[in-house]
Amino acid sequence: PVNFLFLLPVFFLQMTKSVTNPEELGGLASQMTNDYGHLALQGRMAAATAEPEEIGFQIRTRVQELGHGCIFLVQKAGALQICPTDSYTKRELIECARAVTEKVSLVLSALQAGNKGTQACITAASAVSGIIADLDTTIMFATAGTLNAENNESFADHR
């Protein structure tokens, strides 16, 4: 689900830019519909495994609300394709895209609440990877002899 959630702001920008090129809206709406279908499936699994059960309910509810927002967005895109010069429909499309983006942030917060332990592990793994990369870089420079020694000892003595 995360892929769709991070791509949605891009859809928002594309939708709002497509107000001047309504012929592009059909493809964007189709792509968003497919991606939402994947999100709904993943969201159902995340809700089923979330602890506590209240978090699972939040995930399920927020994914459904996002789906309703996506439906309205697709409908407005279709209306703008029918009447590409209607400024009222253009404003409605932009407002729907903004509402969908807000709903995405709610889904993300629900997913994060259900995966606090997972997020902590990801953060820790990222920090450890950074430390390992720094150590590897230091070892590489030390092996090459580019680090200044404080005395006449070599890196091999300390390795």
Automatic annotation (TrEMBL):
This is TLN2 protein. Coiled coil: none annotated. GO terms for cellular component: cytoplasm; focal adhesion; plasma membrane. The lineage of its organism: Eukaryota, Metazoa, Chordata, Craniata, Vertebrata. Residues 1-18 form the signal peptide. It is found in: Cytoplasm. GO terms for molecular function: actin filament binding; integrin binding. InterPro entries: Alpha-catenin/vinculin-like_sf (IPR036723), Vinculin-bd_dom (IPR015009). Residues 15-116 form the Vinculin-binding site-containing domain. GO terms for biological process: actin cytoskeleton organization; cell-cell adhesion. Its main location: cytoplasm. Keywords: Cytoplasm, Signal. The keyword Signal applies.
